[in-house]
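Handoff note, outgoing to incoming analyst
You'll be picking up this chain. Sequence as last confirmed:
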Amino acid sequence: MTAPATPTSPPSPASGLKRPANLRELFWAFTVLALQGFGGVLAVVQREMVDRRQWITNEEFIEDWAVAQILPGPNVVNLSMMIGDRYFGLRGAITAVLGMLCIPMLLVIALALLYQHYADVPQVAGALRGMGAVAAGLVIGAGLRLAVAFRKHPLGPMVCWVFAAITFAAMALWRFPLGWVLPVVGGTTCVLTWFKLGRDTAQVIKS
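Most recent structure output, in case you need it:
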């Protein structure tokens, strides 16, 4: 899993960002990330990509994650493909996806075979329920960290919190399908942001 370090697409222009040295580092970075993803990789992907490795900014992560969610397939696989492509083009996209899936897939298969033998043990069932509570806490914590970017959003933090509350209510309380929530609520925010940025640009030009 080696390749020249020269990327086929330019890294993010944001100052202070690092970048993967080669495809090997990209592969193992996403492998380690996937192996930490008990209960979902969202809880750790931001910490790994933004805080620890500093390959993308928090704002870029939120934008990429929004795109990854509306594309078909697992969100984090879509995100890994986008980050890999950003630095190494098609080779990077393939390498990042392989890192996300190869070793974790073998581990899950082994655990599934082991679970078949111990699924009826009460202690095992109780342990899994306990891990579910921990996973929920990790996801909530990741969501609150994502909300930090509201301060820099063109619509302002209050409007962002309103849309976040609407999304939560639609999914958790009213049980609307994700296929309806994303285009309706997400589409509305995209349109409002588009007009807000256009209005700001027009004001700058006039001044």
